[in-house]
Amino acid sequence: MSTPRKQVILGAFLGGVNHHTAWWHPEAGSQIDFGSFEHTARTAERGKFDFFFLAEGLVLRERAGKIFDQDIIGRPDTFTVLASLAAVTEHLGLAGTINTTFNEPYELARRFAVLDHLSGGRAAWNVVTSFDAFTGRNFRRGGFLDPADRYVRAAETLAAVRELWDSWADGDVVADKESGRFLARPDAGAFAFDGAQFDISGRFTVPRSPQGRPVILQAGVSPQGRDFAAANADAIFSPYGQLPEAAEFYRDIKARAVGAGRDAGDIKILPSASFFLGDTEAEAVEKYHAVRNEQVTGQTALILLEQLWNRDLSAFDPEGPVPDIDPDPEAPPIIQGRAFVHQDRFATVRHLRAVAEAKKLTLREVVLDQFERGALVGTPAQVAEQIDSFVQGGGSDGFILGSHLVPWGLDEFVDRVVPLLQDRGVLRTEYTGTTLRENLGLAAVRSAAE
């Protein structure tokens, strides 16, 4: 008997504050107008995607104290956008990135539980951490954490939120035949949480939501981040879009999940990817290189390397060699507001120099070559094959897809690639679940009170 083919999970994101978005394109739309969010979400639902994803931008990013002039400015409130999208979609999951450092458990639990009710069980929370004073100054005086404490707070925040969600059981709201009203059981919603970060108690105001608990998403690359995600997340965003690194990450997270007492299938692995389609492979490759060359200008290449070097590199020629000076990790950050993803500055610099020497690349060319989040390039049939092979080969459970063109870019993928994935039998032709958790193939969650 042949092994059933894995179903491909698809998420869609609308680009925000980054250099990937081609804001200069004559067909590009607004980054903040509701119509852009609505079009992307409706298109994703038309393509039977699992969820729509919003990243988070809590501060305007800076270089040496000045706002990035190549960034898109404007990131609306996540809950407002997702609640609005709940009214114009029926099946699509709605995932929001919300920080654990600058929010309180009660507020987080209530907002996501309400979103889950409003959407009929389609809410998801991408749990992220932050510790820096640059971000914290927007929230409270001294509002930052020691880097070592960010996962301590995140773990307690998530534990407290789950306790609030679980304070209501499915049977806590019952129909009273005499009065004809729905009544809550006497102890419904009662909670108490006592930890190093929080000491809270009371009654949670929102009855148990349709999913039991909204879906938890996370992204963790460091050993600490991987452990946190493997123990807590329903899905994790992978930074690896190429084999064999992606397969190694996949195996590692699944093994950590089992080590945390979970089943390997309890957590899904999802890298992000862009896509470039053409009627021929050559046409797709030409489009890819044209867009990438516009995205990674000389200035952008220098800024991406400045975050790694933590030095002012403006004196270096983008069309010249990779800088021959060492990083300065002890200096105050020259780039503020960007997530730092490199585990070892010096090892990464050595790798970039080796690549540049081996391939005879300039500074900008090595950024183009190495700072790619993952691109699916080819004809629609080739891209469908790339996605299917990657998932069946153990690189991931699916992809989070975004386009450089907001908000129209996803249409081409839905019109030309989705039917081919459906023909292969790896993507649904109709939604079968009523909640995001069901559509992702995740087990139902029961409360401790049941």
TrEMBL record:
<keyword id="KW-0288">FMN</keyword>
<dbReference type="InterPro" id="IPR051260">
    <property type="entry name" value="Diverse_substr_monoxygenases"/>
</dbReference>
<comment type="similarity">
    <text>Belongs to the NtaA/SnaA/DszA monooxygenase family.</text>
</comment>
<keyword id="KW-0560">Oxidoreductase</keyword>
<feature type="binding site">
    <location>
        <position position="151"/>
    </location>
    <ligand>
        <name>FMN</name>
    </ligand>
</feature>
<feature type="binding site">
    <location>
        <position position="97"/>
    </location>
    <ligand>
        <name>FMN</name>
    </ligand>
</feature>
<dbReference type="InterPro" id="IPR011251">
    <property type="entry name" value="Luciferase-like_dom"/>
</dbReference>
<dbReference type="GO" id="GO:0004497">
    <property type="term" value="F:monooxygenase activity"/>
</dbReference>
<protein>
    <submittedName>
        <fullName>NtaA/DmoA family FMN-dependent monooxygenase</fullName>
        <ecNumber>1.14.-.-</ecNumber>
    </submittedName>
</protein>
<feature type="domain" description="Luciferase-like">
    <location>
        <begin position="28"/>
        <end position="395"/>
    </location>
</feature>
<keyword id="KW-0503">Monooxygenase</keyword>
<dbReference type="InterPro" id="IPR016215">
    <property type="entry name" value="NTA_MOA"/>
</dbReference>
<dbReference type="InterPro" id="IPR036661">
    <property type="entry name" value="Luciferase-like_sf"/>
</dbReference>
<dbReference type="GO" id="GO:0016705">
    <property type="term" value="F:oxidoreductase activity, acting on paired donors, with incorporation or reduction of molecular oxygen"/>
</dbReference>
<dbReference type="Pfam" id="PF00296">
    <property type="entry name" value="Bac_luciferase"/>
</dbReference>
<feature type="binding site">
    <location>
        <position position="222"/>
    </location>
    <ligand>
        <name>FMN</name>
    </ligand>
</feature>
<keyword id="KW-0285">Flavoprotein</keyword>
